[in-house]
Amino acid sequence: METTTLANEAIRSQLARIVSSATFQGARRAIRLLQYLVEQTLAGQASTLKEFSIGVDALGRKASFDPRTDSITRVEASRLRNRLDLYYAKEGTSDPVLIALPRGGYVPVFAPRTVEVEARKLLDAKADAIGALPRVEVTSTVGSRRRLRLIVAALALSTILAGIGFYSRLDSPPNPRSLAVLPFRSDLPTEYLADGLTENLINNLSRLSSLRVTARSIAFSFKDKATDPLRIGRELKVGTVVTGRVTLRDGILDVQVEMVDTATGRQLWGERYERPSSGILAVQEAIGIQIVDNLSLRLSGDEQRQLTKRYTDNPEAYQLYLQGLYLSGKPTKQGIRKAIDYYKQAIGKDTRFALAYVNLATCFELQSAEEGPGTLLQEAQNAVIQAISIDNTLAEAHAELGFLKWIHDLDRPGAESELKLALELNPNSATAHFDYSRVLAETGRFEQALVEANRAIGLDPLSIQTRKRLPYVLFLARRYDEAIVEYQKLIELAPDFVQTQRELGLVYEQTGMLELALRQFEKMSAMPENYAATMALADIGHLYALSGQHAEARRVLAELVEKSERNYVSAYDIAVIYAGLNETDQAFTWLSKAVEQRPFFIGWLNVDPRLDGLRRDPRFGELLQCFVARTC
């Protein structure tokens, strides 16, 4: 890529756009460095751009500057790359010129972006038809923006070669043995029955090896939308769509179901079931059998048993379970508490209802993230162990136990054993891949963690929570430029999901973009008082400590201590602020308290970049050992 492919005036105009942007606002050192590198290159002096000359001429170091002991040039170049990535991911998406700083060097490269912009427009135009594009991994030494250009160029090339759109598979007929169960419609009082029936059909059918079933998150994205089911099925590239309606009047359950071939629009099967409300289990069973029969699927003995398996024969217990499932799918603090009550009632009706125990454990885990671990994580473990003692073939139970063994005990062998067993029982469990990715990331095995994160996303592509795992792993792997790009994508998809914004702030902080980090933290700290807002307040305290505003950091510490008298505040958050203040003894005092608390994110001890300054201290290793051995 030669500089001469563009006029110097065009490059300087692009430089002016960049340095006057919001992304570079207040970043004086980054602006000075970028202007210096660009002007030296345009003047034919690219060969002089070495660490020493940059440090002295652009970054204000004295003539005694030694790059071997002072890393300012490398650090500031890395921060500049991150800002450029962020600029082109947001404000500069349609700019005519790309200015990039390749890794491993300090000579900027310039290129016209006409091809990339046009390819992006084509990509946007095709997005609705294509759905979720397969993830493309390209290894390059010139950063994420270069990777993005290669991906877009590859997509554009495949368009030309295919001649009929981005991928020839768009015009191929759908797989006849693929199916989407769309959310059954209902009136509000029976919504929990309709949602539960839909979800359980999806779960049961997903276990069949000969049938591809659209993920729950994708199916439920069409809920309450007045869209033609046939059109939805064609967009999803499935051969069959199942729709239904549920009503309950005077104790009589009325379920109407229809199964349609998306290629021809022909009804393959339809049925109306009128049963006493206690007959919901039999109705669910009958629908599953009819779907399999009308698709002419051949099932193994195990698959036949799975399809008709009942986790309870008690209709009251099952309806209580469905109410809990409905509320836990809307995870507000009050919703989780009510869901816990429903699951407990269901277990009271049937003490061998294994699935109710699993979902109860999940709710305890969610509650611990909001209200503090206390005894909740131990209660979660007790519930899921009870589920496994009743039915050890439940993949959901082994996945939950594996996750709890990690976040509560830091028991790596136990966690991995349970998660691997869950994946053996159900290779299509997005939850198991998602949780396994976290264990791998928090034990430093980042490449494997990325593989598992991508598998989870492939199985549940519309879940923002699932998709958040990918940039999370990139952040812990210190691949900050890539993490920023991925977090930005998520924020565009779900701007109200503030946890994503908080995590993006953590990445900005590590790259030195403190102003941008503060904005992200402030968004989450402004939420109604809950633990998420408390975490963001602690993040602000750490940022103040890093930026030398020690009085402000101490003000935040005092506020957190005051908050702890009313609500849960993790000692870990306080320890991180002390680490930012370089008060090592206080940091270890509060980390010891955090180990006693056993917060749900204790696995961060292994990999949290904010604690990197403490890792060489012998006390850090001792703390990890005593936590695992439970001797703290």
How does this model look, in words?
This protein has 632 residues and is of the alpha/beta class. Among the domains are: 3-112; 175-310, TolB, N-terminal domain (Rossmann fold). 59% of the residues lie in helices and 8% in strands. The protein has 29 helices and eight strands. It has helices spanning 8-19, 28-42, 51-57, 72-89, 114-130, 143-162, 191-206, 216-220, 229-235, 280-294, 301-307, 315-328, 333-349, 354-371, 376-390, 395-409, 412-425, 430-442, 446-459, 464-467, 469-476, 480-493, 498-510, 514-525, 531-546, 550-563, 571-580, 584-597, 618-629; strands at residues 97-100, 109-112, 175-181, 185-186, 212-213, 238-249, 252-261, 267-276. Strands 3, 4, 5, 6, 7 and 8 form a six-stranded mixed beta sheet that branches. Strands 1-2 form a two-stranded antiparallel sheet. A hairpin with a 2-residue loop joins β6 and β7. α1 packs antiparallel against α2 (28-42) and α16 packs parallel to α18 (430-442). The longest helix is centred in the first third of the chain and has 20 residues, at 143-162. 43% of the residues are buried.
- Mean pLDDT, nearest integer? 83
Q: What is the helix tally?
A: 29
Question: Which sheet architecture does the biggest sheet show?
Answer: 6 strands, mixed
Strand element count: 8
Shape: globular
- End-to-end separation: 58 Å
Kindly identify the CATH topology of one domain.
Rossmann fold
Structural class: alpha/beta
The helix content, as a percent range, equals 55-70%
Q: What is the class of one domain in the CATH system? A: Alpha Beta
CATH architecture name of one domain: 3-Layer(aba) Sandwich
Give the uncertain stretches in residue-range form.
115-172
Q: DSSP strand (E) fraction? A: 5-15%
Return Rg in Å: 27 Å
Going by CATH, what is the homologous superfamily of one domain?
TolB, N-terminal domain
